[in-house]
Amino acid sequence: MHFESPELDPTQILDDLRADKLSLLLVAGTTAFDVGQALDDGPLAYEALRQHLQLPERSANVLLTGLRSMGLLDVDSHQQIDLTELGREKLSPKSKFNLRGYIGLGAFGADAQNMIACLKHDAPAGDISFVFHEEGGPSALDDPETSDALTRAMAARARNVAPFVAQELDLSTATHLLDIGGGHGLYTLALLEKHPQLSATIVDRQPPLAVAQEYAQAAGLSERVEFVYGDIHTFTASRAFDTVLLANILHDYNASDAERLVQHYARQLSNNGRAIILDAFLNSVPPGSPPVSTGPRPVAAYSAMLFSICEGRCFRLDEYQSMMRSAGLLAEAHIAQVPAHGSLLIGTKA
């Protein structure tokens, strides 16, 4: 296995794959939660709007970010949420040009009803998560065949992205990489291929580790990788690492769990060690503003997809920067970009 870069960018295909999740948010926000009616008489503070809609925090974040990314909501100079001109004309019951009835036809579909249920209960559809928790509820990953299929599916995307991650990251001074929840291991293997001095430890469960072992053997890199079966929330290494990779893993968890993961692995870094977050970042919001991002639109759609299958969502750049600060890491100003709306944020332990 050699990590060649694809000739064509996969981003548009992935955007198209996830775009329907914004349609589902639009249906939910027009029918079950009726954001147009809630804001018909004027703007509301975020918390007042959330309470009016009777939505849990994560649900409100995902729904309102989705609607804002579609140009239907905005934040005014008083830091209150309001309908845009487009939102007022098309979602307000007072507008003779509203599309409420037409949009509402979507509520007859099963997918829209599933999204509405997810938003109401702040839980994945059917309460079956695609994230494993040692002490948590049922997970689709409890089934070995499902877990194996999911790991290989994630590997298909990673093959399109990993070469660019390796291209952007300079680990020439690193010696040992700790890959948390590395699954298929392709990001680590691409970095090992680029940096011959580097060795790695991948921590995950089975069967993801079995897939990573298979790929490492095919790449001729098995001798440079340690595969550790463990719970990523509690794993503690017997040594310090100079690099920790959190690749597309934090978005699987709620904000508190994601922050705890960053803190847990920052403690296992050596001085001047680096933590690397690879993920799709929502746009930051200014200090004191409602936690409702402007997008980008494809990342808002991706966030809605994650919301419907696990306990997480996409986080904003300022949220990740805050997680790093709370873990004692100094985040670099430069944010490298890779295909599929991937961003690389690096934090150094002082």
Task: Give a quick summary of the entry.
It is an enzyme of class 2 (transferase). With 350 residues, the protein is of the alpha/beta class.
What can you tell me about this protein's structure?
This is Demethylspheroidene O-methyltransferase. It holds the Pfam family Methyltransf_2. Residues 142-328 form the O-methyltransferase C-terminal domain. The chain is α/β, with parallel strands linked by helices and 350 residues long. It has two domains: 10-121, Orthogonal Bundle (Arc Repressor Mutant, subunit A); 144-281 and 316-349, Rossmann fold (3-Layer(aba) Sandwich). It has helices spanning 11-18, 20-30, 35-38, 46-53, 57-69, 85-91, 100-104, 110-121, 144-168, 186-194, 208-218, 255-266, 297-309, 317-326, and strands at residues 73-75, 81-83, 176-180, 199-204, 225-229, 241-247, 269-280, 329-331, 336-338, 342-349. Strand 1 and strand 2 form a beta hairpin. Helix 2 (20-30) crosses helix 5 (57-69) and helix 5 runs antiparallel to helix 13.
